[in-house]
Design brief:
Number of domains: 2
CATH class of the largest domain: Alpha Beta
Shape: globular
Number of helices: 14
Distance between the termini: 39 Å
Number of strands: 22
CATH architecture of the largest domain: 2-Layer Sandwich
């Protein structure tokens, strides 16, 4: 942030809510940067927050510290993300001026309200949840991703605060790519297609390839089984899950991967700021993953509604998540690369037909060696940290409820390279 009265940089204080895979990856990335004064790492499970902070401690310390010195810019607290009052109190107690949401999107609105009430800015990586149309779910949207947050835009503007939505990799970096293409590469855009694929393999203790999602299964179920949204001819419409399969050739050795339509925030964000005839999101899930998701749906195991089992109320989806390994722990069993990118078609600045794919590839071997985190969560986590640094320095400024497309993409893409995460462009 910039103090306009004196023109100096004010180092921010951050409340990071969530010490799971992505939250734990945020900490070592941020630890290498000096734009913030302090980061409070919060999780309902205090041990997770303490573990994320302890990983940044110095090797020498006092006996009272368990032989390790605490990192002076990080602390850990227990916090229930579903309790806006408790979150608001934590923001005030620790004098945090920004809340970084690294929990799954069912907690977005309590955190969103807490930040608004406490006078803190807000960033997330996945927007408030959708609800399918009750009668025509595969034709028209019901409540769209982010609708609940955008409904409060005027309150954020009146307060002079910023809520930056969808600032991960997808959404996030993919949206920055869309804005960059519109500003610097194209005179007009016919279609923007976010395409995500990988050649990542997770192996079990026996060395055999196993089924282990590399990202939150709770969020994956939500986005993959909901009706995908498509922007076309000036309006949003929905379609069947896993529709319109296509094979996309991903760069840097990943190769061809079949991708299908999935509900995702970019389709709801990009058209608000970037004129385009059509916007889609397709994910390279693979046949096995799609079969598993369809089976979960058929059995009702994707439901978030609690059922009673032996006297205990439990959500079937939470049971599925509990039965699968924590994605944060998979790094040493993973190999391969993951790619996030934005495919743009239209008329170039010279008026000629042009197609480009702007992309970001991350190798799991590199992220494990450099940061001790697996590739998928690292690729998600680096982008909000870059955004926070731009906000802290004043290169990005905004009020209200905004997406990544609302900001100049060049400072972001330049700083991303400085973080050791170069992006690429391929003419199609």
């Amino acid at each position: 942030m910039v103090d306009q009265s004196v023109g100096t940089v004010v180092r921010m204080r951050i409340l990071l809510v969530g010490a799971g895979g992505v939250g734990s990856a945020v900490v070592p990335i941020a630890a290498r940067r000096d734009f913030f004064e302090h980061m409070v790492v919060a999780d309902q499970d205090l041990s997770k927050a303490e573990k994320a902070v302890a990983a940044q401690a110095s090797p020498a310390g006092t006996p009272e510290d368990g032989g390790r010195r605490r990192h002076p810019r990080f602390s850990a607290i227990a916090l229930d993300a579903s309790d806006p009052g408790a979150v608001e109190a934590a923001l005030r107690e620790h004098r945090c001026d920004v809340l970084l949401n690294a929990v799954d999107p069912r907690f977005d609105m309590p955190l969103f309200h807490a930040a608004l009430n406490a006078g803190a800015d807000y960033l997330d990586m996945a927007m408030s949840l959708s609800r399918p149309h009750p009668r025509r779910p595969y034709e028209v949207p019901g409540v769209k991703l982010g609708d609940e947050q955008f409904a409060l835009a005027e309150q954020w503007e009146d307060r002079g605060g910023l809520a930056l939505l969808g600032m991960g990799v997808e959404p996030g970096l993919a949206d920055v790519f869309a804005r960059y293409a519109a500003d610097h590469l194209f005179a007009s855009i016919d279609e923007i297609g976010i395409r995500d694929g990988s050649n990542l393999v997770v192996r079990g203790p026996d060395g055999e390839q196993g089924f282990a999602p590399t990202f939150s299964i709770w969020t994956t179920i939500e986005e993959c089984l909901n009706p995908p949204v498509i922007w076309e001819n000036g309006a949003w419409h929905t379609t069947e899950p896993f529709s319109e399969p296509e094979v996309f050739d991903f760069p840097e050795g990943i190769g061809p991967v079949e991708c299908v339509n999935v509900e995702h925030e970019e389709v709801l964000l990009i058209p608000r700021w970037v004129p385009a005839g059509r916007v889609t999101f397709k994910y390279g899930l693979g046949a096995e993953f799609i079969d598993v998701l369809r089976t979960l749906h058929k059995l009702g195991l994707d439901s978030t509604a609690a059922v009673r089992v032996r006297g205990v109320e439990v959500s079937p989806r939470d049971v599925v998540a509990a039965c699968l390994p924590d994605p944060a722990t998979l790094g040493d069993r993973m190999s391969g690369k993951t790619c996030a990118g934005t495919w743009i078609k239209g008329a170039g600045k010279d008026g000629r037909r042009r197609e480009v794919y702007l992309y970001h590839v991350v190798d799991n071997e590199w992220t494990m060696r450099e940061y001790g985190t697996q590739a998928v969560v690292w690729q998600t986590a680096v982008n909000p940290v870059v955004a926070l640094e731009l906000l802290a320095g004043g290169a990005w400024k905004g009020r209200g409820v905004l997406g990544p497309e609302a900001f100049d993409p060049v400072p972001f893409l330049d700083l991303l390279r400085e973080y050791g995460a170069p992006w690429g462009m391929r003419e199609q």
